[in-house]
Design brief:
It is a single chain. The protein is of the alpha/beta class. The chain folds into two domains: 8-241, Aspartate Aminotransferase, domain 2 (3-Layer(aba) Sandwich), CATH 3.40.640; 244-366, Aspartate Aminotransferase, domain 1, CATH 3.90.1150.10. Helix content is 39%, strand content 13%. The protein is built from 13 helices and twelve strands. The protein has helices at residues 8-13, 16-29, 36-49, 60-70, 88-95, 114-120, 140-147, 200-209, 231-241, 244-264, 293-302, 332-340, 352-366, and strands at 53-57, 78-82, 99-103, 125-129, 153-155, 163-164, 167-168, 175-179, 193-197, 271-272, 286-290, 341-344. The strands form four sheets. The chain has a four-stranded mixed sheet with strand order 1-9-8-5, sandwiched between helices. Strands 3-2-4 form a three-stranded parallel sheet, with helices on both faces. It has a three-stranded antiparallel sheet with strand order 10-11-12. A hairpin with a 2-residue loop joins strand 6 (163-164) and strand 7. The longest helix is centred in the C-terminal third of the chain and has 21 residues, at 244-264.
Length: 368
Amino acid sequence: MAVQMLNIPRQHAALATALEDELLAVFRSGMYIGGDKIAAFERNVAAYCGCRFAVGVSSGTDALLAALMALDIGAGDEVITTVYSFFATAGVIARLGATPVFCDIDADTFNINPAEIAAKITPKTRAILPVHLYGQCAAMTEIMRVAGAIPVVEDCAQAIGAEVAGKRAGSFGVAGCFSFFPSKNLGGIGDGGMLTTNDEALAHRLRLLRNHGMEPKYHHHFVGGNFRLDAVQAAVLNIKLTALDQWTAARQSNAAWYRAEFARRGLDKFVKLPVAKAGRHIYNQFTLRCERRDELVQFLQGRGIGCDMYYPVPFSRQECFRYLNCRAEDYPVAEAVSRECVSIPIYDQLTAAERGEVVAAFAEFYSN
């Protein structure tokens, strides 16, 4: 049996009629940029994330970029972030001419280590950018305490609906940045993103930024970009948002089954299972630290078991950041995790038989 890492058509099947009806309605409306679909989705995401405002944008990357632009971050500024994430987290900092300052991660959650943040704050620090990796919130209580008056921008690309300390991802800092890339827990049928905030003035600035800093038409207050979310994505995502909690519960159930089955088979001698600390983990990924990871991945792929390595090269070793003169020994946890991590299928429509195939393949590999 081949087990896919993700099966989006399977997820869409139960919503097919509603999705197709909504897409047809958008097509017939002639309103493809802006309009009621965008406004409704923004209201619903704001409510879901426990925030006053939400601003739809063209991607998760552009959400991060717009947030930093809204804070006027540029050359000479430093932004503290994790050394271990998807490239966009660090890329947007460098793109604005600012300097990314990398921190090592927590060995259990893979999220940024707050103690590292405290050690790296300087007079040039203009923002702190934690990532809620794999669907689990970073240690936001500690991060907000360490940050003090420094703005915190949350990278929530993998964490819509995740919670810690009774609050949802995207509601702690000055802004939360979400991605609706198709593979996300809430994924569109193309690119899309969202910013959340409780600051009305910042929300207004972000709305201008996504449309070239323009208000009214042809009058530009500052240089923004074309970061608009389109109506097709908003329409699809609004339908899918109604099923998100159900899908999250299924992912959590799959995660619980994996934990029990890996332990029952004694595989936890070879594999370190994800640590879910206090809060709501939404399991964008189910990521393990494994002995002989590269051999394991090759074996799983040979058995038709979907898997992936998120992320095998920390930012400190990326060619484009060579100018920062990072040293691998300064990020020992991220270095170890990057050599050991593999993510396995966890998506909400994964069947019991498919889960069984995944664990059986692990058992076969480690029996040797």
